[in-house]
Amino acid sequence: MNDYENPLIDMTYKNRNSRSKRKVLFIVATCLRDEGNAGNIQDFPYGVLSIIKYNEGFADFEILDLLVNPKSLGKCLEDLISKLQNFSPDIIGISVMFDNAYFSIWPIAETIKAWNLKSFIIIGGPAVSPIARMVITNQPNVDAVCYSEGEIPVNDLIRASNLSLLVSKHPSWISRNDIDTDKAPDKTLVNDINQVIDVSYVYVNVNNYERRVSFNPLDDRFLDKLVLFRLLHQEDAHSSAHFVGTLEKMIGLCVMQM
After folding, report:
1. pLDDT of 75-90, one tens digit each?
2. Which of 243, 227, 164, 212 is nearest to 44 (CA)?
């Protein structure tokens, strides 16, 4: 058991089958531009799906895909408000895979706080994790930024009796209280990939994704010629999300025409 866990984990939320569960909404922000560029694609949110898989039963989850760009931002915010009103989440996570969607964090977080000032907003993803302190400093409506993989940090958060206290004490969260400190975030990783490998697609509409994404479970073009190599051993996978992300890429590389 981690040192930060004892006084902060609420027994109400400790068990998977608890009757009292928090609601968590993950917002996947993707920016699609007319010109081609890195990240200019709506890809499956495997990181978020992995977090949900690991935390299955601890909370009620929903995912909102937002295709953001300056022209569509107004419609996206309307969709966001509708989802907030219908789901009433306790925790809202914004996932940013590519930096071209960074501009959307401010209006999304601002809209959430306008809906409910007490909403707890977290953010994560490859575009923000390495610059967690800069993000929390420049985004006044964001409560915490997750450093590296999110499965365990999110699990600790949704079971905490005090969300703000948890993120300020947790090694993998950078909170508003950490802005003027020398806290250096550290990874909290899942070692058993079997806990997250079997993600569920019920949280997303798979028909919304392109066939050219890194791995589309509905893409049957190569199913009869699929060759998979065991490129990673469980003992070599330092984290579940790292494995999932790497496997996703390797499947694309290992699909060969015989």
Report:
1. 999 999 999 999 999 9
2. 212
